Amino acid sequence: MSVLNVSFSFILQSAIFNFQSLLTVILLLICTCAYIRAMAPSLLDKNKTGLLGIFWKCARIGERKSPWVACCCVIMAFSILFLQ
């Protein structure tokens, strides 16, 4: 179990210090939260404030700005696949 915690903290730390990885993590969080809210809205709607409210806010961003989020996902995918 400690190996999993160490590898997760390493991934998170490397995403914080690398700007492109940070943007990828944020985009994945927004897309995942919007998908979860579309499939099971009660999971995110009950936690609109506090620490878990971050996921509700990400879902709202994904719903309201979905064309922009989709465009950013395509650009990020192109960047990861062809520019790295």
Automatic annotation (TrEMBL):
It is found in: Golgi apparatus membrane. Involved in the early part of the secretory pathway. This is Protein kish. Keywords: Golgi apparatus, Membrane, Signal, Transmembrane, Transmembrane helix. The keyword Membrane applies. The chain crosses the membrane at residues 15-36, 66-83. Its main location: Golgi. It is a single-pass type I membrane protein. It comes from the Eukaryota.
